């Protein structure tokens, strides 16, 4: 991907998770919002392993080769593409729609409309014949594409290994939680305005954790995300289902969330529906 920043921002190159090294303390990692990452590559008809830019604070970018691109994930107002840094009338760039960029053209972003992480996927022109041009392909409205999202917009969880030690699980699931500024690709800390939850376990040996594990620490709950550690020493009271980790990737500090407990069977049904939604985009 030959793209350079002409105005700084906060972004990085991401790809698929890399499994097989958790025994030595390395998490699979990869794109934080895997669905947004996958839909971008699907619209471009890229290999699913093709890398993308994961953008937190939008830079101004210049394309150094001809090709097609698409923006998914967080949406920005006023995204435009100009033929050169100092000239040409900027053209609007619609969200989740494949556009063509010539070498030297400049991509600019306005303020975020929603979401936290945007994804820029790219396909060089020399990898695409004119008959295969993906230009103007789009995946449609979010609610039509993402049938797998909870209708009540709650974050779905299953019981964790130490769930039974939680003194008041009903209260934990009933009340709203707010994300704090204490967040990264490793995890996010939550807070609420009620009495802090407690466990009957006061000390435990470090155990394996996974993507989405909710640990109850003395300072409150934390949700482990894609780049988390592989072991932890706090009670694992709940676990966010894999599909909803992509939703959490779009939460900014200060946002409210509610949890909804589901069964393993329900979580698997959501995963199947999510895969079906992605296949529909690939086959458009």
From TrEMBL:
Recorded hits in SMART domains, A to Z, give: AHS2
Keyword vocabulary terms for this entry: ATP-binding, Hydrolase, Nucleotide-binding
* Pfam families named in the record: CT_A_B
Claim: ATP-binding is one of the keywords in the record: yes
Q: Which residues form the Carboxyltransferase domain?
A: 23-278
What is the source species? Answer: Desulfoluna limicola
Protein name as catalogued: Hydrolase
Gene behind this chain? ybgK
Molecular function GO labels: hydrolase activity
């Amino acid at each position: 991907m030959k793209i350079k920043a002409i105005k700084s921002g906060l972004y990085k190159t991401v790809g698929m998770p890399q499994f097989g090294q958790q025994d030595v303390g390395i998490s699979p990692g990869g794109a934080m919002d895997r669905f947004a990452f996958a839909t971008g590559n699907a619209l471009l008809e890229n290999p699913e392993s093709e890398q993308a830019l994961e953008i937190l604070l939008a830079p101004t970018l210049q394309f150094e080769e001809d090709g097609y691109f698409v923006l998914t994930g967080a949406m920005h107002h006023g995204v435009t593409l100009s033929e050169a840094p100092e000239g040409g009338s900027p053209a609007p760039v619609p969200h989740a729609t494949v556009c063509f960029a010539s070498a030297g053209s400049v991509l600019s972003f306005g303020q975020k409309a929603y979401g936290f992480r945007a994804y820029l996927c790219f396909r060089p022109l020399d990898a695409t014949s004119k008959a295969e041009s993906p230009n103007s392909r789009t995946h449609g409205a979010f609610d039509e594409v993402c049938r797998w999202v909870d209708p009540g917009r709650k974050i779905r969880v299953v019981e964790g290994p130490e769930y039974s030690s939680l003194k008041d699980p009903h209260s934990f699931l009933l009340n709203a939680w707010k994300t704090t500024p204490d967040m990264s690709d490793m995890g996010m800390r939550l807070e609420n305005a009620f009495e802090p939850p407690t466990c009957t376990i006061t000390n435990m040996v470090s155990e394996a954790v996974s993507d989405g594990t909710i640990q109850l620490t003395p300072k409150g709950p934390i949700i482990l995300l894609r780049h988390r550690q592989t072991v932890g020493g706090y009670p694992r009271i709940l676990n966010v289902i894999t599909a909803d980790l992509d939703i959490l990737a779009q939460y900014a500090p200060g946002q409210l969330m509610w949890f909804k407990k589901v069964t393993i069977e329900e979580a698997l049904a959501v995963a199947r529906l999510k895969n079906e939604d992605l296949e529909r985009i690939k086959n458009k």
